[in-house]
Amino acid sequence: MLTLPAYLTNPACHVRRMWLLLVFFGVVAARVPAVSSAWTSCEAEDQDRGTEFGVRSANLLQRARRSQPIIPRNWTNSTFGDIFGLPNQGVGPVRYVPGPRVLSHLQTGLLLGTLAVSVALSHLSAAEVTTSISSWISASVCTNLLNKEAASTFQATCLLVILQMFIANIVVILARFKDLGCPSVRDFWRWLPVSFLVSGMLGTSIFALEGTTVSTVNIIRNVLPIITFVLEKILFNSPRIVRPGHVLSMFLTLFGTTLYGIYNFSVTSYSLGMILFGCLLTVVDKLLQRHLLMSPDFKQPLAVCMVMNNTFGMLPLLAVSILTHEAPNWSRVIAKTPWDGWLLVLASGLSGCCLGFYGLAVSKLVSAASVLMLQNTSK
């Protein structure tokens, strides 16, 4: 009978098992692309030379790819003839050097692994506030980085966000099916504006990242907690007592972020407009979410809110894609997007789903200004 190690069977060792899962994600994400990119780069280099030797080498690599796609352990010390049992034609030892794409796949795998650890720990711990906030911050970091990569790889912004929403819907339906049900008519109409606001925030954030840096977005968004704090005090009298530490902490965060990212501040007028419009939508969204989730007569489950956000949020994006003439290019973009581009779409969709769900959970626990402060802290 097979006996597993104690650290894999002990119920108290959840953290260790989750970190093993993180390492597994990273290895799987980097291993296969590494082999594929090694073959592709060598083949392209020889074909570009246009010599007889280059043609023979390219043909040899084509045969090798079909017959033996996995690189042996002694790859770095072997010739092609030694590896594939073919006559050695003067080709020296071929060494594999990881390229930027391999490192990008490794980064994606590690980000998803970290997110998986945070989500798993949030379900294993009884500390709701701490685990929800930590999972939300982890999802925010992953989504911010993955969206930047996905926006530069997938050349159709509206379609990218629509696919992310579709992936999030599938995940929520599979994971929270028991919580889904027909919402009351009153709760449905009260939450519907939030769905369109979420769609606008996602779209403007990705449009903005096409012409600016992440540091620029972070500097501008650090003003939001100050604005939200003032509006929340005026509208909901929260917090009831304003202490100097509240205001000082927000200005200190703004100053620190500006000092850190000022040398990487770069933005076009179009991206600046998108950032400011997204900031406006964010303030309204956080205040409305906080008001509804804290309202005692609002009984709609978070899973239903998520499905509404993702379903109705697609409609404005479809309209924008038609107005910007992006929709006619969707078939071309889908056909030309490489498989690692689709990996980024899937990864950003999973991360966005976690961000949306835990974002609603955190909005139910803390004030709107605190949510934005935590968001800026993660960035």
From TrEMBL:
<feature type="transmembrane region" description="Helical">
    <location>
        <begin position="300"/>
        <end position="323"/>
    </location>
</feature>
<feature type="transmembrane region" description="Helical">
    <location>
        <begin position="189"/>
        <end position="209"/>
    </location>
</feature>
<keyword id="KW-0812">Transmembrane</keyword>
<keyword id="KW-0472">Membrane</keyword>
<dbReference type="GO" id="GO:0016020">
    <property type="term" value="C:membrane"/>
</dbReference>
<protein>
    <submittedName>
        <fullName>GONST4 protein</fullName>
    </submittedName>
</protein>
<feature type="signal peptide">
    <location>
        <begin position="1"/>
        <end position="30"/>
    </location>
</feature>
<dbReference type="InterPro" id="IPR050186">
    <property type="entry name" value="TPT_transporter"/>
</dbReference>
<feature type="transmembrane region" description="Helical">
    <location>
        <begin position="343"/>
        <end position="374"/>
    </location>
</feature>
<keyword id="KW-0732">Signal</keyword>
<feature type="transmembrane region" description="Helical">
    <location>
        <begin position="154"/>
        <end position="177"/>
    </location>
</feature>
<keyword id="KW-1133">Transmembrane helix</keyword>
<feature type="transmembrane region" description="Helical">
    <location>
        <begin position="269"/>
        <end position="288"/>
    </location>
</feature>
